[in-house]
Design goal:
- This protein is an alpha/beta fold and about 240 residues long.
- It has one domain: Alpha-Beta Complex (2-enoyl-CoA Hydratase, Chain A, domain 1).
- The longest helix has 19 residues.
- It is globular and about 50 Å long.
């Protein structure tokens, strides 16, 4: 397990903590691989509730663009594909999943939230999903399933920031709770998860979650394989300085 990800497992509950606070928990290649390994392992070790949170002041700043211009377009494309692999593993996990967000939640960090079955944020949390600004189609269908096509289209096309209250009203979040209330929240979520057998929980998931993994991966692959990815990222980052 990478030092960039902390894993704790106790009484059928696995907690994964993004641990790059100095980078606002931005998703490095190593952190994404550690998350994929941990989520896949949780599907085999008796976990009934998988919790994801972040160390420091912010949940997740999304894709880590550090040294992006020094990487090949193929390397960058693979990193986005691995993030989609992670998001699919979360969205289709056979156990309950709980995301606990705070601070600023950006890009693929917001996609992690959208991929979990329970999505709770502290008051004051903000979200932004700017991927289409540099031509990357990541998580779009999952977002639409959470908040609807019209609202999702508006948020993605404008790349605007939205707050926790709006996120709750649209269905992006399932609740807002102060961070000091999170232990009680996770205890309640654990009790609910324990009330179903693993087989029943997996069956409920299969019947209530649309499986569009192949289409989502294909759309992402098309978007990141279009020549000029590095230049699109460079132009986007120039506009955000």
């Amino acid at each position: 397990m990478s030092d960039e990800l902390l894993r704790r497992h106790e009484n059928h509950v696995t907690r994964l903590t993004l641990n790059r606070p100095q980078k606002a928990n931005a998703l490095s290649a190593a952190l994404v691989e550690a998350l994929i390994d941990a989520v896949e392992y949780a599907a085999t070790d008796g976990t009934r509730l998988l919790i994801i949170d972040g160390a420091g002041s912010h949940f997740c700043a999304g894709f880590d663009f550090t040294d992006a211009q020094a990487q090949s377009e193929g390397d960058l494309a693979l990193r986005f594909i691995r993030i989609e692999t992670l998001l699919q593993a979360l969205y289709h996990a056979p156990c309950a999943t709980l995301a606990l967000a705070h601070g600023r939640v950006f890009g693929a960090g917001a996609d992690i939230i959208a991929s979990c079955s329970m999505r709770i944020a502290a008051p004051g949390t903000t979200f932004r999903m700017p991927g289409l600004r540099f031509g990357v189609v990541l998580g779009t269908r999952r977002l639409m399933q959470r908040i609807g096509a019209d609202k999702g289209r508006e948020i993605l096309s404008t790349s605007r920031t939205f707050n926790a209250q709006e996120a709750l009203a649209t269905g992006f979040l399932t609740d807002i709770a102060e961070q000091d209330a999170w232990p009680a929240t996770t205890a309640d979520a654990s009790a609910i998860a324990e009330s179903l057998t693993p087989a029943a929980a997996a069956a409920l998931h299969r019947r209530t979650v649309i499986d569009s993994r192949a289409e989502d991966m294909a759309e992402l692959a098309r978007s990141v394989s279009t020549p000029g990815l590095k230049e699109r990222i460079r132009r986007y980052r120039e506009t955000t300085k």
